[in-house]
Amino acid sequence: MPSEEKIIINRVVENFARTGNVADEKVKVTNLPWGKSSYVEYIGQDGRSIMLDEFHVDGKTIRAGYSSRTGTVYLSTTGA
After folding, report:
1. Total domains in the fold of the chain
2. pLDDT for 5-21, tens place per residue?
3. Which of 45, 56, 61, 75 is most exposed, with the fewest beta carbons within 10 Å of its own?
4. Domain limits at 59?
């Protein structure tokens, strides 16, 4: 994953873990249902799988992935 994508995901995940806020000024953020590890993003009839990586912030586990195609970060909390 390119470093700019890592920076974006880390910023969004840390903000979400600490505030519960899914908004970000620079990218779209979509909160997925609990426990998701992937998401299929559709644009028209074309689908693309976004794999979510696990992040640990302040004792919380959050899975997140970034789509450069739509500039969206996808988040899913877990019980782990």
Report:
1. 1
2. 999 999 999 999 999 99
3. 45
4. 3-77
